[in-house]
């Protein structure tokens, strides 16, 4: 039994010098590694601005965690420095992450407020979105010269306002409706969702994509340098054994070449070492970290990215996939979704709504569907898959707020699924009342 006068906390940390470089986007590196080519493209696209010509719009795209935002910040600072040296008027807003603004009103007013002193800032509501756009144009016109607006994660701009931001805004000086005469607006849009780009109207695509810069995933050698740089700052000297960085880099490169994932592995490996009272972080700690990272990432999505309805749909899809001899078809997913909603006391929505949730999950990359043509029988049906391992998903659900939703025999079914013995299990016959439910929801 713990004594009341015993304090269980350690005085010092033998492993980490500082954790900040490993935490999500809270540290700006002094060096950018392995992005010379992309930086060159950027500089070419923005050279006009540096000398006071009109700006080009730039579209930056590529998967998550590959340096799009960091490189953009670096280029922005260099550009401001040069413009300042040359006495070229230039204002740059952002990067503003569109994900943080749930309505177009909030997003435009955030841009307006960048120009205003705090006493004149716009409130969170009170004007129409059109009026707030007018305020933005007034502010931009008042500063005059070139104004660059950097919008990150533009796929999160509410659909009804996409044209306003991605087409009308960068062309405002040509429009009769916007009071822009002296100023010139350039838009830099960043996205990691290529499906989103395809879904844009051609005129929007061509306006935004005057200059396009593509960022690819990092390979293992590049990740070694990048992770090594952050590890040098984050860990005490000499605590990492030689194979930690190569292993974390190799795993991350195999997954999706995302620096953030590599940093998470390093943090976790360090924590395992600390928990085990080891004074070194070893290969073993790193391997353990790679094993749990997938579940942790899914858990983070439950906490940050998914609405309650999307989360229930995602879990229902996963159950439909692991249950034996059963394709994850929309009808089946819907029936599991209603049971899940029931068990957490949520109201279930209509089947039509479920299609929307599945679409949203697909847009966010959690599920994908295959369109099966039924041949001579006619008709089509969609069969769903999840993009992560169902085992990792269920493990994440257990740690999440949705654990109560799971049927209580989920481990038995998951075990069968894992052992690939599913075929020995009779599929429930949906026409037979007593067989309809293999899941036991309490
Ligand atoms: N080449 C690099 N050199 C140093 N640090 C890097 C490099 N690339 C990425 N990073 C670091 O990795 C993290 C993720 O990078 P960043 O935010 O730029 O990714 P992103 O491509 O914008 O991702 P997302 O699309 O998810 O926003 C940041 O902490 C960033 O500083």
UniProtKB/TrEMBL annotation:
GO terms for biological process: DNA replication. InterPro entries: AAA_22, Cdc6_C, Cdc6_lid, ORC1/CDC6, Orc1/Cdc6_arc, P-loop_NTPase, WH-like_DNA-bd_sf, WH_DNA-bd_sf. Pfam families: AAA_22, Cdc6_lid, WHD_Cdc6. One of its GO terms (molecular function) is ATP binding. Keywords: ATP-binding, DNA replication, Nucleotide-binding. The keyword ATP-binding applies. The keyword ATP-binding applies. Gene3D superfamilies: 1.10.8.60, P-loop containing nucleotide triphosphate hydrolases, Winged helix-like DNA-binding domain superfamily/Winged helix DNA-binding domain. Residues 314-397 form the Cdc6 C-terminal domain. ATP binds at residues 66-70, 218. Involved in regulation of DNA replication. Belongs to the CDC6/cdc18 family. This is ORC1-type DNA replication protein. It comes from Saliphagus infecundisoli. The lineage of its organism: Archaea, Methanobacteriati, Methanobacteriota, Stenosarchaea group, Halobacteria.
């Amino acid at each position: 039994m713990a004594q009341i006068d015993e304090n269980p906390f350690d005085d010092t940390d033998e492993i980490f010098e500082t954790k900040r470089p490993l935490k999500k986007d809270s540290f700006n590196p002094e060096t950018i590694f392995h992005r010379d080519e992309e930086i060159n493209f950027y500089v070419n696209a923005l050279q006009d601005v540096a000398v006071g010509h009109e700006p080009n719009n730039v579209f930056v795209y590529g998967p998550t965690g590959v340096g799009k935002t960091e490189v953009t910040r670096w280029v922005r600072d260099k550009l401001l420095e040069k413009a300042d040296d040359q006495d070229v008027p230039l204002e740059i807003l952002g990067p503003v992450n569109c994900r943080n603004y749930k309505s177009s009103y909030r997003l435009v007013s955030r841009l307006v407020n960048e120009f205003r002193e705090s006493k004149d800032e716009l409130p969170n509501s009170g004007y129409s979105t059109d009026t707030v756009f007018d305020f933005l144009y007034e502010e931009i016109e008042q500063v005059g010269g070139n104004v660059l607006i950097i919008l990150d994660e533009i796929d999160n701009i509410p659909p009804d306002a996409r044209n306003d931001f991605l087409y009308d805004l960068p062309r405002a000086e040509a429009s009769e409706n916007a009071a822009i005469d002296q100023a010139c607006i350039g838009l830099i849009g960043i996205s990691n969702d290529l499906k989103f780009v395809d879904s844009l109207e051609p005129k929007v695509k061509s306006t935004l994509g005057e200059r396009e810069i593509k960022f690819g995933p990092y390979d293992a050698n590049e990740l070694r340098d990048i992770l090594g740089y952050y590890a040098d700052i984050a860990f005490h000297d000499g605590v990492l054994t030689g194979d930690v960085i190569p292993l974390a880099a190799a795993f991350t490169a195999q997954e999706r070449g995302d620096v953030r994932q590599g940093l998470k592995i390093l943090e976790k490996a360090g924590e395992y070492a600390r928990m085990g009272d080891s004074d070194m972080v070893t290969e073993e700690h790193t391997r353990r970290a790679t094993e749990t990272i997938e579940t942790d990432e899914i858990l983070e999505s439950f906490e940050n990215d998914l609405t309650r309805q999307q989360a229930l749909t995602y879990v229902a899809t996963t159950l439909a996939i692991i249950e034996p001899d059963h394709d994850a078809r929309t009808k089946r997913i819907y029936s599991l979704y209603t049971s899940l909603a029931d068990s957490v006391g949520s109201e279930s929505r209509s089947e039509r709504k479920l299609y929307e949730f599945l679409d949203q999950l697909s847009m966010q990359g959690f599920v994908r569907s295959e369109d099966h043509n039924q041949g001579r029988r006619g008709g089509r049906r969609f069969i769903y898959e999840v993009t992560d391992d169902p085992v990792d998903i269920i493990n994440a659900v257990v740690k999440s707020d949705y654990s109560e939703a799971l049927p209580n025999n989920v481990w038995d079914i998951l075990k069968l699924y894992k052992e690939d013995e599913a075929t020995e299990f009779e599929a429930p016959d949906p026409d037979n009342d007593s067989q309809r439910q293999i899941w036991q929801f309490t």
